[in-house]
Amino acid sequence: MSKSSIPFRVHGALASAALAGLALTALPGLAASAHAQTEPPDTVELDPLVVSVLRSPVRLDRLPFSASVTAGRELVEGNAGFSIEEALHALPGVRVQNRYNPAVGERISIRGFGARSQFGVRGIKILVDGIPATLPDGQTTLDHLDIGSLGRVEALRGPAAAIYGNGAGGVLLFRSAPPYAGPYRQEATVVSGSNGLLRLQTTGSGTAGSVGFRASVARGHFDGFRNNVSESGEDPYSMADRTTVNAGITSVVGGGTLAIQLSGLDLDALNAGSLPASLFDEGSNQAWGFNVARRTHKKVRQGQAGVSWRGGLGGLEGDFAAYGVRRELDNPIPTSVIDLDRNGGGLRAALAREWNTAGGAGRLDFGVEGEVQSDDRENFANQGGEAGDRTLDQQERVRAAALFGQLRIPLSGRVDVMGALRFDHFNFSTDDRFVAAGNPDDSGSRTMSGLNPSLGVHIDLGEHGLFASVARSFETPTTTELANQPDRAGGFNPGLDPQRGWTVEGGLRGTLGEVSTYDLAAFTSKLSDQLVPFEVPSAPGRRFYRNSGRSRVRGFEASARMVLSPLLTARLAYGYVDARFTEFSVGGDSFDDNRIPGISPHRVEAGLRAGRGAWFGEVRLEKRGEVPVNDANDASAGAYTLVELRTGASGIRAGRLRLSPFAAVTNLTNTRYASSVVVNAFGGRYFEPGPGRGGHVGLSVLLERRQRPR
Predict the structure, then answer these.
(1) Four-CA torsion 648, 177, 74, 601, nearest 10 degrees
(2) Torsions phi, psi for 147 (to 5 deg)
């Protein structure tokens, strides 16, 4: 890549040390110059948090399942706003493999579930502003997520949310910041960073009477650091352009709250592919030559709309929602050109009733869901990125229906019990339109069903809480996983079955004095028919799936947040995951007791933050253990440690404007590491490199029009 394409880059230890000094020692002096800023210093949240991840409001310190929340400054302050990894950094138990490749997206996993994903997110149910981002078949893409406008993220770790279904890892809820309470507020943000990063965003928000609104447009460009060495030497072959439009309106209607959400996406990204050890170990960041020759990339156009209403209906509480999505995909991969038009949507209706008991409030939620998905899929031979001969032409449909109920009962003032039951039924069907001599009609259908209960109990011990739960999980293959067959046949793979399992967990959470909070959880999952990805020599770069016999996942999570002084706060999170096959063999090779690839056993996240008035400085550390990359466990990605520095200010007044400048140095020690791995890749192409030392600078400008006092 030419240096002229990099608007900001940090070189050498001297610049890094200077920024470190700015972040950690210059804060008091900087804060003095911003004495007009009256926002309080950052503190650890010790008051009870209320979460809605189980559809009904529950205090986090009374929840009988593992959950975590991040909100406010942690989500947006100092972030480039181009990566989901930034938004999930503070959530224990949630791991992100940032592939630095928007053509396939970041890989999100919870307790190891989701680590197999070829693209997007698998094994986790995700909702954005109340609208499902996870389609009926279990596939999630988050390209449309407005990272720069997030206000809150909630994570439920494990399969206890039976009311959501079709996911073994858990649930993630993304919520945009609420509308500004005054008449109008306009905010503009610009971020410039290394590797050609440039992001522009503008957001308008306000409230008029009972109507609140928020609208945002963001445009991001990223040259990337993967180079096209096979043609012109230093030209980047990992560029991405992404434009998102998001809007929301809330209003009081019929005694309840009506919410309308709209989003649009335009994404164009090159796919640099993964590297074999021979290139990765020598420090190469080149794009894989086969990907360059076949012009692998992804173009996506997507629109999504959702409407929901929640309010009182007589003595009940009603919750109704509907959504629709249209997605157009042009996706040349090394062996094929995929042309996919997708339509999907769903309806949800739920009722709830609360009552008072001697031990507190009891609650019953019950409802139904129906979802549909229709994919018009055509595959062609890849001829230098252009479509050649047609190899597949079929219409794929998914119909999903579910019934669910959830009951929360306080047995006493200190003991709460929550149980849920959900039944899911899926029908996958395909209409094969590519029928000719020697190519039979592969039309057909598959049905998959699951009855999944969960039960949890919480015991209040004063400043501490003890909880335990047991839950059953059910996860279907996606249409892509069913349609990709090594023999190139049409239709759906008749031998690929859903993954099922049981999870047991227990934990302790609470406060220590008035200066810290902690959360401990241990879990074990036993799975049957786990979905395992692989590649074949005839189709390198294309992912196929098979079921393992049995496997288990166990581990524990520990996190803490501490106020060390009025100016200094710290956080620490550690996760251990021991994921192994217990019964699994392929072609006579037994993988019993091998680690499930793609999952690091150890991960540590830590942060030390100094703040006074408007100004802040922060040091972040992430340490990840070794990652096995194939079923045989004879290759792995090495352990690494990353250090990041951040500094900035929030809301410095400049007349009618409020300015928030910020800067960051990423990968301070210039560590060479694999940011992601491609499990069981053919030819040993397991490794996706992460970038070296870099950084970004940014500025947000805010203009508010307040309500004039009468």
Answers:
(1) -140
(2) -65, -35
From 377, 346, 300, select the one nearest 166 (Cα to Cα).
346
Q: Helix, strand, or coil here: 48?
A: coil
Contact 581, 543 (CB under 8 A): no
Judged by phi (left if over 0) then psi (alpha if -120 to 50, else beta), residue 168 lies in alpha
Handedness of CA 663, 176, 73, 212 (dihedral sign): positive
Residues 103 and 342: their CA atoms lie apart, in Å, by 17
- Per-residue confidence band for 598, with pLDDT thresholds at 50, 70 and 90: very high
User: Rounded to an integer, what distance in angstroms lies between the CA atom of residue 307 and that of residue 250?
Assistant: 10
95, 124 Cβ separation under 8 angstroms: no
Residue 265, amino acid: L
CA proximity to 197, closest of 664, 621, 676 = 664
Q: Report whether 274 contacts 288 (CB < 8 A).
A: yes
- pLDDT value, residue 50: 77
Give the residue from 143, 117, 103 showing the smallest Cα distance to 298.
Answer: 103
Return the number of other C-beta atoms located less than 10 Å from residue 314's C-beta: 8
- Region of 170 please: left (phi>0), alpha (psi -120 to 50) or beta: left
Q: Is residue 640 within 8 Å of 15, Cβ to Cβ?
A: no
Quick one: CA dihedral 679, 684, 685, 691, positive or negative?
positive
For 109-129, how does the pLDDT look when each residue is reduced to its tens digit (9 = 90+)? 998 888 877 777 888 889 998
CA quadruple 281, 287, 293, 295: dihedral positive or negative? Answer: positive
Q: Does the structure show a pLDDT above 50 at 263?
A: yes
Quick check: 206 pLDDT over 80?
yes
* pLDDT tens per residue across span 658-705: 999 999 999 999 999 999 999 988 889 999 999 999 999 999 999 988
pLDDT tens, residue by residue, 280-307: 999 999 999 889 999 999 999 999 999 9
Kind plus residue range of the DSSP H or E element containing 480: helix 479-483
Total residue length of the chain: 710
Q: Structure pTM?
A: 0.87
For residues 10 and 16, the answer to whether their CB atoms sit within 8 Å is yes
Contact 362, 408 (CB under 8 A): yes
Sign of CA dihedral 456, 462, 463, 464: negative
Residue type for position 190? V
CA distances from 171 to 110, 115, 162, 260, 542 (A): 9, 15, 10, 22, 28
> Does 17 score more than 70 pLDDT?
no
